[in-house]
Write a structure and sequence with these properties.
seven-stranded parallel sheet, alpha/beta, Rossmann fold, globular, 415 residues, 15 helices, 2 domains, disordered N terminus, EC 2.4.1.132, six-stranded parallel sheet
């Protein structure tokens, strides 16, 4: 394609191949789909290749794109407890890249990959080298603990490969200024590379076209103040903070107000992921210990329509992760005119305006409960902050700006 059009610097509508480890329902998958749809709408030929794809456990928009799968037979881990997940992810992505090059019968100009950079050398060593755009959600080497000598020994070559192969990309994008700063601090050998920031955006069409459903089957009768937590069932998301804040809130309210409060813990859940299964049970047990059984509903692997209905009907979103790389949930909530109470670190510092579109707090149950209580005693906050939130999303995270910016990054690689 691009190589065959030598001298044609303005070659239109490049063919773009997306390479992603597992097309599930997380924030990374949301961004990959939005990016692919954006380039397709801009006239590019787009294909997604992934090691695992289940149409029943993926965003509905994935059905609007050609999605192909290879390598799902390879293990996701090396044993009990998810050990060796990193090296398995590297092997799966390298296999996927090799399959695309030699067996996939694909013609493409640019490869867009994310999360796992180990596949980049495969395309660089191809007879006709491909241009690579790597989207770094966050350095993987910071997402795991090294609490033993064996773990440090195991991670050392993986960390080196991540840093070295990331530097082989022709263009590096990150999801926030926060991640850009962490990138520079973490990858010392890449100090000469300045990643560009491309904020995730919303595919607002699905939000605008959806008709919210009634929540009668999820929310007990008589509940007026509905609070919502949306996050995968992972320990790093600090979901216990929402339950602990609810306990503190109970102590601050009259029994009449407390009886009208309800929390929905909606989370991405995959039975193949041991941590999802374990943490879901841990949270349910915690709710029982706190005597919150009648005040909390746990919802696993909800549909897009359910999410939109929940955002439409809730008083505010409680967003608990610390140092979140970006966090698409607060943006989705603000677009749906729903204020957000979030931890004052990471991506939410760039998406939420404190006391305007929500509240930014220390990851402390007391501070979270104080912020949540304001929506009970001042119901007008929901409306004023909701309107401000929607305006902010339209100004800073519009799909038009995202599409044009991404398209420019892709086409510049071919000049």
């Amino acid at each position: 394609m691009a190589e065959e059009r030598a001298g044609d610097e303005l070659a239109p509508n490049p063919s773009v191949l997306f390479l992603h480890p597992d097309l599930g329902v997380g924030g990374a998958e949301r961004l990959v789909l939005d990016a692919a749809l954006a380039l397709q709408a801009r006239g590019c030929s787009v294909t997604i290749w992934t090691a695992h794809y289940d149409p029943g456990h993926c965003f509905a928009e994935s059905r609007e794109l050609p999605v192909r799968c290879a390598g799902d037979w390879l293990p996701r881990s090396l044993g009990w407890g998810g050990r060796g997940a990193a090296v398995c992810a590297y092997v799966r992505m390298i296999f996927l890249a090799l399959y695309v090059l030699f067996l996939g019968d694909e013609v493409f100009d640019v490869v867009v990959c994310d999360q796992v950079s180990a596949c980049i050398p495969v395309f660089k060593l191809a007879r006709r080298r491909k241009k690579i755009l790597f989207y770094c959600h966050f350095p993987d080497l910071l997402l795991t603990k090294r609490d033993s000598f064996l773990k440090r020994l195991y991670r050392a070559p993986i960390d080196w490969v991540e840093e070295y192969t990331t530097g082989m990309a022709d263009c590096i994008l990150v999801n926030s200024q926060f991640t850009a700063a962490i990138f520079k601090k973490t990858f010392k050998s890449l100090s000469h590379r300045d990643p560009d920031v491309l904020y995730p955006s919303l595919n607002v069409t699905s939000f605008d076209s959806a008709v919210p459903e009634k929540l009668d089957d999820l929310v007990p009768e008589g509940k007026k103040f509905l609070f919502l937590s949306i996050n995968r069932y992972e320990r790093k998301k600090n979901l216990p903070l929402a339950l602990e804040a609810l306990v503190k809130l109970r102590g601050r309210l009259t029994s009449q107000d407390w009886d009208r409060v309800h929390l929905i813990m909606a989370g991405g859940y995959d039975e193949r992921v041991l941590e999802n299964v374990e943490h879901y049970q841990e949270l349910k047990k915690m709710a029982q210990q706190f005597d919150l059984d009648q005040s909390v509903t746990f919802l696993r692997s909800f549909s897009d329509k359910q999410k939109i209905s929940l955002l439409h009907g809730c008083t505010c979103v409680i967003y608990t992760p610390s140092n979140e790389h970006f966090g698409i949930v607060p943006v989705e909530a603000m677009y749906m005119q729903c204020p957000v109470v979030a931890v004052n670190s990471g991506g939410p510092l760039e998406s939420i305006v404190h006391s305007v579109t929500g509240f930014l707090c220390e990851p402390d149950p007391v501070q979270f409960s104080e912020a949540i209580e304001k929506f009970i005693h001042e119901p007008s906050l929901k409306v004023t902050m909701g309107l401000a939130g929607r305006a902010r999303v339209k100004e800073k995270f519009s799909s038009e700006a995202f599409t044009e910016q991404l398209y420019q990054y892709v086409t510049k690689l071919l000049v």
